[in-house]
Amino acid sequence: MIGGTMSSKLTLAAIIAGGVMVGATSSAQAADFGGDCCADLEERVAVLEATTARKGNRKVSLTIYGQVNQALMIWDDGTNSDAYVIDNDNSSSRFGFKGKAKIDSDWSAGYKIEIEVESSSSVGVSQTQDDNTGFNIRKSFLYLKSKSLGKVSIGQNSVATDDITHDTFLSSTTGFTQPDIKYARDFGIVNSAGVKQLGLEWGELCGASVADDDQCFDISGRQNSIRYDTPTFAGFTLSAAWGEDDFWDVALRYAGDYGAIKVAASVGYYEWDGRDAFANGSGKDVVNEETSLAASASIIHTPTGLFLNASYRNIDVDFAASPDADSDNFYIQAGIAQRWNSLGKTIIYGEYANSKDGALTSGADTSLTSSDYDRWGIGIAQKIDAASMEVYALYRHHEVELEDAGVAVNDLEDFDLFVVGSRIKF
């Protein structure tokens, strides 16, 4: 005999035979798809599916996205100064869910839900308020889209003219600076003694409508509405919307390339009838009608990165008791966006804005007869492509001339601010 005794060989044979029988039994049970084993497995899979976030379902996709935009703002109103940590409302912190499904070769459907989370919004801080946590639904709508016929959306959504005075900008600066007065809006205008003048805030000086007094240049915003967008023809897209409290608007946008030059432009009209937002003890007049016309244009030379942006907005308000008010607002921004390092593009810019008689259109309960508001600023930003991030720093100066009942208001202090911050997207 080779390799051991007869007894040991018999023992080994018995072990092997037992193992074969156990394996056969296990295989038979595993092949029994109707047995208790697989029923338990299916139950466990169902539980996991119910408790695990998925990328949509088999028909409709799901994408989670968002951004965080935080900054340090140092301000000086001429008599007092301070430093606040803010959420930058030029492009606020938010998260959202979006998805779509293909119906056929031409039609598709989709949705978007976007929620804003601001720890201390830059448009809500003031001399007496350094914290104003906000949580609101920016968008919640669904749409049906045809490649040949266009797109129809319904729900809380950007209306046709939303962002029309800056969404054409090709400079990549709107995340931290825009035509609107997003930093000093709620700060009061004070005299050399630190006393607020005529109850006015800086946000009421730039053609701000009673709709939303941080919308100095942007006509509208996000509202419950029905919106239609045409397909793009030769670079042109036409949009129209109608919605809550009888507003309607229409906008035309264009984008095109001409060799080394890129251009973009837009124009829009907005009308809201029967508004009475300030009728109940707010100290502001009731508005019968509000109309706005706005336009913007942008051009960039791609090899050098030199760019020029410009915006215009006119607002006309029909008050119930006070005389009608009309204001004009101009904004211009110029700079360079060039890749000078491995991180990404560096953006350097200067900006100027002017608003005439904007305080009159705010509906403030004063005897103001004219206002002339100027703002200028400079800034720099660095893109960090590897982290989908940008860091920025900017300075802005604000000044105003007022007449109350035709008499100049003197001893008004200017307002200065410095902001340094960062935005990261996910």
Task: Chart the SSEs and their pairings.
Blueprint (H helix, E strand, L loop, with lengths): L5 H26 L4 H16 L11 E14 L4 E7 L6 E9 L4 E12 L15 E13 L3 E9 L29 E3 L5 E6 L20 E8 L6 E8 L3 E12 L2 E13 L13 E15 L4 E14 L5 E14 L7 E11 L1 H4 L6 E17 L4 E16 L2 E3 L5 E11 L1
Antiparallel strand pairs: 1-2, 1-3, 1-20, 3-4, 4-5, 5-6, 6-9, 7-8, 9-10, 10-11, 11-12, 12-13, 13-14, 14-15, 15-16, 16-17, 17-18, 18-19, 18-20
Structural commentary:
The protein is mostly beta strands and 426 residues long. It folds into 2 domains: 8-45; 63-425, Porin (Beta Barrel), CATH 2.40.160.10. It has 3 helices and 20 strands. Strands 1-3-4-5-6-9-10-11-12-13-14-15-16-17-18-20 form a 16-stranded antiparallel beta barrel. It has a two-stranded antiparallel sheet with strand order 7-8. Strand 7 (188-190) and strand 8 form a beta hairpin. The radius of gyration is 30 Å and the shape is globular. It starts with 5 loop residues before the first helix and ends with a strand. Mean pLDDT is 86; it is low at 1-35.
